[in-house]
Design brief:
CATH superfamily of the largest domain in chain B: Histone, subunit A
Protein name (chain B): NCT transcriptional regulatory complex subunit B
Structural class of chain A: mainly alpha
Subunit structure (chain B): Forms the NCT transcriptional regulatory complex with nctA and mot1.
Strand content of chain A: under 5%
Structural class of chain B: mainly alpha
Number of strands of chain A: 2
Shape of chain B: elongated
Number of strands of chain B: 2
Largest interface: A-B, 82 and 77 residues
Helix content of chain B: over 70%
CATH architecture of the largest domain in chain B: Orthogonal Bundle
Shape of chain A: elongated
InterPro entries (chain B): CBFA_NFYB_domain, Histone-fold, Ncb2
Radius of gyration of chain B: 26 Å
Mean pLDDT of chain A: 65
Domain Transcription factor CBF/NF-Y/archaeal histone (chain B): 13-79
Low-confidence stretches of chain A: 29-34, 117-141, 230-259
Low-confidence stretches of chain B: 1-7
Number of helices of chain A: 8
Largest sheet of chain B: none
Number of helices of chain B: 7
Number of domains of chain B: 2
Mean pLDDT of chain B: 87
Region (Disordered) (chain B): 101-120
Oligomer: heterodimer
CATH class of the largest domain in chain B: Mainly Alpha
CATH topology of the largest domain in chain B: Histone, subunit A
Chain lengths: 259, 142
Amino acid sequence: MTDQDHSYRPQSPDFSTFQSPISPPPPAAAATIHHFHHLPPVYQFGNPFAHRASYDASPFFPPQYQQPPAPPTRVPQPYLHLDPDMARRSSRIAQAAEVAPLPPAKYVDPVVEEEPPEEEIEVEEEEEEEEPPKPAPPAPVEVKTKFPVARIKRIMQADEDVGKVAQVTPIAVSKALELFMISLVTKAAKEAKDRNSKRVTASHLKQAVVKDEVLDFLADIIAKVPDQPAGRKHDDDGSDQNDQPKRKRGGRRPKDDSD
Amino acid sequence: MSDREFSSNDDLSLPKATVQKIITEILPPSSGQTFSKDARDLLMECCVEFITLISSEANDISEKEAKKTIACEHVERALRDLGFGDYIPDVLAVAEEHKEQLKSREKKQSKMEQSGLSEEELLRQQQELFRSATEKYHAAPE
């Protein structure tokens, strides 16, 4: 050890002769000090443990001075001898034991959420898979899928002349349309069958329409369909290619003329 | 206005998927027949035309009766006049069912009256339910 070393060396001054205003901690206080060992140890004034004790005893800090918030690693545990759960439960039981009589109640009709009845269904329906707003009742017909009623109504009212429509009307029209479709598809399918075709084409549908007087109103739509599509991809009705002249209405075709 | 007509053109046809579904219900795969796309498109046009026909006919009928709203009976008459009389029974049945639905909806609103019990009786029942619920609650182990 040189002199230099000696000069830099921290020296603990000897304060032992000083009369400390703080009395040395009583043994009980010393015991509690161990609880604070998580604090960075600060050694001062010769007495390694005097620091905390000095706070507690200092006249500038009230004795109920609480220790600073603990570092997050240590969760302060309440040293309760009573299980808090147990306490809660017992208080609840105690409460339940003295149930106050209910105030005179009036019977309240349970409120049922109900959408207000709509006069006109004006729902904007965008996509194709939509269901009709009202689940249609099970009909004794083979078709379960229903048309969107709102759409039907819109189509009806696309006609400038058509004014107001009762709420049931689109539903009735929708049913009529369903039956109409069934008859049209069935007839077209029959035409295809008669031609040994597994594939029902637009021209088959045309044949079906042309044959039926009631379907005259479709004449304009049907007119643009060629009787025999030139380039058929599915040539599965080859047996009667030259067998499809223009059919005028009423021209009955025996079902099995190709067999 | 004409601008709108063009843009809403799509709305004025039927949803393709729905039409296709109905077609497959009429012609299930087991039938061995398939419905081509062009046939389906044509069918959709026919359907729209059918709606237009029925509604304009029903409209004429309602106007003749000096009615402002097209009602179910106008549709019924239109169907008969246009040669679709055999659809009428089913159409009326559906309309009737819808009316029933509306009625039952109204009934729901007066559930209290529907129960046929006096207010005292309902109140007693409610108290009974409260009591049993309280007992159940206390009987619960936790």
